[in-house]
Design goal:
196 residues, alpha+beta, two-stranded antiparallel sheet, 46% helix, elongated, disordered N terminus
């Protein structure tokens, strides 16, 4: 990193980013819990939240990472399948049968056979439904449900104040920055120190 940048204090920018990311986390959790209409290749239509077991919602959290002394980064973390739900998946990509079985066991789904008849929840019926789901996802993929995209779009309204926060940080640190890159204050003005 350039000398001079390491001492700039980013307290205003950091406070703004932290508040923004916490808002994005909240909006993401709201989007997960919101009813969404989804139509599956079988023709069935469901209007329900994305969450079933609560695992996806519980996994969403803001993560802060420090990068090289002065810079920092914020991100949202969550279960690995969140992006697959948001963007959808291409044909031929499907989760393992074990993951589908685990998902079915965690979710209070009604198991049905190929004709739509309700099945009793047994190990065998769960395995059979997981097998059919996996086959369907390999043939059709997963249609996108852009819950993350929607949360980001909703959060963009809150970015208006970011420029102000950055300007304050630069103004608060400009003297230290100039000193670090080779200037010296002389009679209220900064002059470049000539190297001998």
């Amino acid at each position: 990193m350039e000398q001079g940048l390491t001492d700039i204090k980013l307290k205003n920018t950091e406070a703004f980013l932290k508040a923004y990311m916490e808002r994005l986390e909240t909006l993401t959790k709201i989007e997960i819990g919101r009813n969404r209409t989804r139509t599956y290749p079988s023709g069935r239509t469901y209007n329900s939240p994305l969450e079933s077991s609560g695992s996806l919602r519980d996994s969403i959290q803001v993560q802060k990472t420090n990068i090289e002394n002065a810079l920092l980064a914020y991100g949202i973390e969550g279960n690995d399948y969140a992006l697959d739900i948001n963007k959808g998946t291409p044909k031929s990509k499907a989760p393992s049968r074990a993951k589908l079985i685990s998902w079915i066991k965690a979710k209070p789904v009604t198991l049905r056979d190929k004709k739509g008849k309700i099945l009793k929840r047994t190990e065998e019926s769960i395995k059979e439904v997981a097998k059919r789901m996996q086959k369907s996802q390999k043939i059709h993929g997963i249609a996108p449900v852009p819950f993350l995209t929607q949360a980001v779009q909703d959060s963009m309204k809150h970015l208006d104040g970011m420029g102000v926060a950055i300007v304050h940080d630069i103004a608060d640190s400009v003297e230290q920055f100039l000193t670090n890159i080779g200037y010296k204050e002389v009679n209220g003005k900064f002059e470049l120190i000539k190297k001998k």
